[in-house]
Amino acid sequence: MMDAKFLREQLALIRELADQADPYIKRRLLALADTYERRLAAQSRQTQERSRG
User: Fold this and answer.
1) What is the dihedral of CA 52, 2, 41, 12, to 10 degrees?
2) Residue 41: inside a domain, yes or no?
3) Least packed by Cβ within 10 Å: which of 14, 31, 37, 50?
4) Inter-CA distances, 16 with 6, 9, 38, 43, 47, Å
């Protein structure tokens, strides 16, 4: 499992690159950012479940 801090840093970098990219690359980068966001959300849920259990 990737570290949440690393994922957030990569997410910020990807979004910054997307702002500067042409429309085709921007779409792909934003799709990648969405994947990272889903990973972060899943990690957050797992962490919450472990703290409850």
Assistant:
1) 140
2) yes
3) 50
4) 15, 11, 18, 23, 28
| pLDDT tens, position by position, 1-47 | 568 899 999 999 999 999 999 999 999 999 999 999 999 999 888 87
**Number of domains the chain contains:** 1
- Distance CA(34)–CA(47), nearest Å, equals 20
34 vs 51: CA distance, rounded Å:
26
**pTM of the predicted model, to two decimals?**
0.80
How many residues belong to the chain? 53
Q: In this structure, is residue 33 part of a structural domain?
A: yes
Contact call for residues 42 and 9 (beta carbons, < 8 A): no
Domain of residue 36: give its range: 4-45
